[in-house]
Design a protein that fits this description.
Blueprint (H helix, E strand, L loop, with lengths): L2 H9 L5 H13 L5 H7 L6 H14 L5 H10 L3 H11 L4 H12 L4 H14 L6 H10 L3 H7 L4 H10 L2 H14 L2 H12 L5 H14 L6 H10 L3 H6 L5 H10 L2 H14 L2 H12 L5 H18 L5 H13 L7 H10 L3 H6 L5 H9 L4 H14 L6 H8 L27 H17 L1
Helix pairs in contact: 1-2, 2-4, 4-6, 5-6, 5-7, 7-8, 8-9, 9-10, 10-12, 11-12, 11-13, 12-13, 12-14, 13-14, 14-15, 15-17, 17-18, 17-19, 18-19, 18-20, 19-20, 19-21, 20-21, 24-25, 25-27, 26-27
């Protein structure tokens, strides 16, 4: 180190900023290789004037080795006027060397660094940036109108912000994705809604954007997921079976309040899958007691109605629930429905005319055709006097639509093979025989 440089170095330790600044100006004119290190150190001086002077001095020298410390100083500088002067100094370097360093800073996870990098890029390298990077800068600066204007270019950084940002930033990014309104932006929202590994609040924010901006765009399954995430239980119930899985997951894994509401909604939907989930929840001692109670109430409330739904599997589930609760039928109609659900057809036949309404209901629902036909033939054969003339005529005109295809008779030339199946034709024949006997007695 030369003697004069050594004296200048000692002068940089002066307590007077003006003295240190004069040394910086002299170092700027020096071409001594060692002087550059002192200039970069001066970028961290306590005095704003000295820091700005050091940046100008480095720019005057144009040494590319000083670019990294210059940019580091630019990103961490908190005095606005000094930051502007450092930015002006950085702008004097080749943009091809400046841009990559600033883009690296833009991708840093720390928001203050991102904001400084975005500001510098907009000031220094704007013309050299892609649309994707411009969109990213607009997001960092929260210029949401500009963000939406970038359209597809903004989708990827918006999704990243939705996953990683603060609550306010997530909501803003979700709104922007909804307002962009392209297939890409909707897919980004869907992927967040579907990802059960994410925090509920993140998924809820994406769900909120769907409801606000693209409610008519998504399919029923995603409508159900969105409704459940937003705790819109009436909407979930209105979607029926497609909402069951989302409700089951919510009932099992969320807060007590939400679990109770999901159990009630499952009881309203009352498919076999929903009833099965409620039954398992009721029996699971590891579940919250209030959620188990809500499941039990849903089961008890709906079990009687479920005995008459057009699905034998659900009827059988309802019968098991009622039996497990110690319930007993209160009238002949309930006895018939319970016997049908439990596959106790001899009991149905024993109940006679009291079973007719329920049996005709099964015919209308095209359920258990052969067993129903057998029970009706038994009724006409063994208890004809219990039937009114109108009921007998009704059975005499019984349509074939109640029969499954595999038990309908197919007319073929030649003798018919005997069959053990009872069909609607035989019910009609038995009813006509009763009519004939009544007519001539």
């Amino acid at each position: 180190m030369s003697g004069i440089l050594q004296r200048w170095t000692q002068a940089l330790r002066s307590s007077r900023p003006a003295a240190r600044l004069r040394v910086i100006e002299k170092l700027a004119a020096s071409r001594d290789a060692d002087s550059l290190a002192f200039l970069t150190d001066a970028l961290h001086d306590d005095s704003p004037e000295v820091r700005a002077g050091a940046a100008r001095a480095i720019a005057d020298r144009g040494d590319p080795q000083a670019l990294r410390p210059m940019i580091a100083s630019l990103l961490t500088e908190r005095e606005v006027e000094v930051q502007k002067q450092i930015a002006d100094a950085v702008a004097r370097f080749d943009v091809k060397k400046t841009k990559p360093l600033l883009l690296m800073a833009l991708d840093e996870p720390h928001l203050p660094v991102q904001k400084s990098a975005a500001w510098a890029l907009r000031l220094i390298c704007w013309e050299a940036l892609s649309q994707d990077r411009r969109a990213q800068i607009a997001i960092v600066h929260a210029d949401w109108e500009d963000v939406v204007g970038y359209g597809r270019a903004a989708v990827k950084p918006l999704k990243k912000l939705l996953l990683e940002g603060s609550a306010h930033a997530r909501r803003s990014s979700a709104r922007a994705l909804g307002e962009i309104g392209t297939a890409e932006s909707y897919r980004a929202l869907i992927s967040v809604v579907d990802d059960t590994s994410l925090e509920d609040e993140v998924r809820k924010t994406a769900a909120w954007a769907f409801r606000s901006f693209s409610w008519t765009w998504i399919d029923d399954a995603h409508l159900a997921t969105v409704a459940v995430l937003l705790e819109d239980w009436s909407a979930a119930v209105s979607l029926g079976p497609v909402a069951v899985r989302a409700l089951i997951g919510t009932m099992r894994g969320k807060t007590t309040r939400v679990g109770e509401a999901a159990a009630i909604a499952l009881g309203e939907i009352a498919t076999e899958e929903a009833i099965g989930a409620l039954t398992r929840t009721q029996a699971d001692t590891s579940q919250d007691s209030r959620v188990r109670d809500a499941a039990a109430k849903s089961l008890k409330k709906n079990a009687l109605d479920m005995l008459n739904v057009p699905d034998m599997a659900v009827r059988k589930s309802a019968a098991r629930i009622l039996e497990g609760q110690g319930w007993t039928p209160g009238n002949d109609r309930e006895r018939v429905l319970m016997a049908i659900a439990q596959n106790k057809w001899s009991e149905v036949q024993r109940l006679g005319a009291a079973a007719l309404e329920a049996l005709l209901g099964l015919i209308e629902q095209s359920l258990e055709c052969e067993k129903v036909a057998s029970a009706l033939v038994h009724l006409l054969t063994h208890s004809p006097d219990s039937l009114s003339t109108h009921q007998v005529r009704q059975l005499a005109g019984l349509p074939d639509f109640c029969q499954p295809a595999d038990v309908r008779r197919v007319v073929r030339p030649g003798p018919r093979r005997p069959s053990s199946r009872v069909t609607c034709e035989e019910v009609r024949e038995a009813a006509k025989l009763v009519e004939h006997r009544r007519r001539f007695n």
